[in-house]
Design brief:
Strand content: over 45%
Helix content: 10-25%
CATH topology: Lipocalin
Number of domains: 1
CATH architecture: Beta Barrel
Length: 140
């Protein structure tokens, strides 16, 4: 026979376990992001045996874009390492250390998640400045 309260304790432990198993993971930004979904093939390319994503030679003629791979954001002109990330609701703020051919800079890179395949880049401190991006399909 079970002791009084044992059922309650078991239920509490089970509820705690279920909440750990079902907790939501942070939004995964990994992928190719472009300002125009119809231009993905004109903005991005893959190279080598490992199919590493890169930018087409004249990609800037067709729109903007960036590649997020792990803790790295690559743009046409700069590569940034993500140093820290903070989520506030559907907004993700990242502090990055960026390098171009001529300088190094710390930059805040913030996005608002619209859905799994759409984000809006926002610029804190610049009211109304936003750029919409779509996730491009993975390159074969």
């Amino acid at each position: 026979m079970s002791k009084p309260g044992m059922l309650g304790q078991t239920a509490l432990v089970l509820a705690a376990w279920i909440s750990l198993v079902t907790y939501s993971q942070a939004f995964d930004l990994t992928g190719l992001w472009a300002t125009d979904s119809s231009a993905c093939d004109k903005i991005f390319a893959t190279k080598g045996k490992n199919k590493k994503a890169s930018f087409q030679k004249d990609s800037d003629l067709y729109g903007g874009g960036f590649i997020i791979d792990g803790n790295r954001i690559r743009g046409r002109m700069a590569t940034c390492n993500i140093r820290s990330t903070k989520e506030e609701g559907s907004t993700i703020h990242m502090m990055t250390a960026c390098a171009t051919d001529i300088m190094l800079a710390n930059i805040q890179f913030s996005v608002k998640v619209v859905d799994d395949n759409r984000i809006t880049r926002i610029f804190p401190g610049i009211e109304g400045m936003e750029l919409d991006y779509v996730r491009c399909p993975a390159r074969p």
